[in-house]
Amino acid sequence: MGVKQVIVMRRDLKMRRGKEIAQGAHASMAFLSNLVKDSLDKYNNLEVRDLISPVQKAWIEGLFKKVCVQVHSEEELVAVAEKAAKEGVACNIITDSGLTEFNGVPTMTCLAIGPDEEEKVDKVTGDLKLY
Q1: Model confidence over 17-48: pLDDT tens digits?
Q2: CATH for 3-125, options being 3.30.590.10, 3.40.1490.10, 3.30.70.100, 3.30.43.10
Q3: Residue 91's closest CA among 102, 103, 78, 100?
């Protein structure tokens, strides 16, 4: 079973390269950091390993396979997120606070799909162009 994560980056924002990398890193780790935050809020002492699915564990213990693709608008980004939800694939949208770019306006910059089985992820992102 192949496992991967896909980062979907908005190209229309013309972010600086470092900003794009930081936003993509936020997206990639969001699934794990959200699990940790939720476990602390709900369970206090529950081990994170008890919250991670077997597929997520395989990704963490494997090669952390990631692919970066692109969209060209907020509408396209939201459509990908909606498609992921419809397919039952985890999706984490990143909204930048706007403190260093975007004139102080919170802005959706990217999202991560998965990690999950490649076939599931490809149903959501397989038609998107590589970044």
Answers
A1: 999 999 999 999 998 887 777 666 666 666 66
A2: 3.40.1490.10
A3: 78
